[in-house]
Design a protein that fits this description.
mainly beta
Length: 307
Amino acid sequence: MKKNYLITCLGLLIGISVSAQIDAGLFRFPDVSKTKIVFTYANDLWIVPKEGGLAIKLSSTPGVESNTKFSPDGNTIAFNAAYDGNRDVYTMPITGGVPQRITAHGSNDRVVDWSNDGKQILFAAPRESGKQRFNQFYLVPATGGIETKLPLAYAEYGSYSPDGKQMAVVIMSQVGRNWKRYRGGTNGDIRIYDFAKQSEVNISANSDAGDEFPMWHEQSIYFLSDRGPEMRMNIWKYDTQKKTFEQLTKFTDYDVHYPSQGPDDIVFEAGGKLFLFPFATQEPKEVKVNLVSDKTLLKSKNVSAAE
């Protein structure tokens, strides 16, 4: 009897622990540093060791925090939030703290990346584009201040070359649209823009598929495309020296979403789970993440029916 009682108590304790700890999915907007992964889950920011494990919650405010990007030194996170009205750029230390507002404009600003030296944040905004559905690129000091517009007529997603003299840029994008497998004139394509020459080369010119999220690492540009036989968004690589393309992942059921590069890896979401794609091995591997949550959204509440 005593033995059965102990087993029952142990089972209850395990059940309580499991119910509080969630084997989570539906991660969004991940980024990776040398040692950490940051992502959005249930509209808040979380951080976890690159090897996976228990994630720590960094934010708990109403609204959505998104488009996370580590600074090059891995100590600061730039992200988007609408704490004070519209969507602006904010930063926060990886150890948490009060978010610092970096931009304060009436239009929506979307974090794209950091400058290579970590002194500025690159963001996209429709401020002067003439059409609200199209953005341009701006740089803002990482501590806030005067913004500088880049010399690009339109720009949605981009990545600096290692020397900072060029940028792989998508000028129109289908990211976030409610359709897939689009083949048309406003599909995403990737152009290499030379800042000194003020010229560009369209590396996607021979494909009608969507090419998105360029990530420039050494002499290669990694990107997302559904140009493969699976017609799913997968990771591809363009060799800037050989001018050749290579498909690196081959997901067939679900698209790869929101890839982002760090010093040693690309992190992305597919099928609701997180994956790392190390540059060294060129093989994707799932990152197991657990969360501890109070599940506030599941708590019963009173709702006024007056109207």
